[in-house]
Amino acid sequence: IVLDRDGVINQDSSSYIKSAEEWIPISGSINAIARLHQANFRVIIASNQSGLARGYFDEAALARMHEKMNSMVGDAGGMISAVFYCPHSPDAGCSCRKPKTGLLQQAEIELDISLAGDYFVGDNLKDLQAACSFNMKPILVRTGNGRQTELSLSKEIKEKTLTFNDLESAVNWILKKR
Predict the structure, then answer these.
(1) Residue of 111, 118, 123, 104 whose CA lies nearest to 41
(2) Distance of alpha carbon 134 from its chain centroid, rounded?
(3) Whole-prediction pTM
(4) Residue 114 class from Cβ within 10 Å (0-12 exposed, 13-18 middle, 19+ buried)?
(5) Cβ contact 140:150 at 8 Å
(6) Residue 104 buriedness (CB in 10 A; 0-12 / 13-18 / 19+)
(7) Are the CB atoms for 73 and 30 separated by under 8 Å?
(8) Residue 178 pLDDT exceeds 90
(9) Across the strands, what pairs with 164?
(10) Which of these, 116, 149, 161, 173, is most buried using a 10 Å CB contact count?
(11) Angstrom distance (rounded) from CA 150 to CA 55
(12) How many helices (H) does the chain have, and how many strands (E)?
């Protein structure tokens, strides 16, 4: 399962999450990730982090945010298999910035897996577009930018997308479906 980070796992901010102190988990998200891991899901994070290119934080600050996330998930009995992120600005023209699928391709190569048919949980249109482009099952959560995104979805994407209030609700559904 692939998860976006900001707005799905942790609270998002229009002024960017710039430090481990600002990285605050959304209620239930850490335990949801732990439950996925305990149910033998490989949990992968794929996140656009243009704050790096914009100079809002550096690689060391991002590493501290991810260390905090990994530590909290570990304390809850789970594990995140890998974190992939795009460090580029929106206008850089890279292949890794969602909705492009470079992060997903990188995950497949580095982890020697296929993500086709797997779930991708996000809170914005770029996440859903990347999921659809990569033949994954898109899930929208209403946390972060999710409520706003839900209102603006095209009929085509809306028909392909499952929608839940938050990551915990999505995980509850996924685990019941198994």
Answers:
(1) 118
(2) 15
(3) 0.97
(4) exposed
(5) yes
(6) buried
(7) yes
(8) no
(9) 141
(10) 149
(11) 30
(12) 7, 6
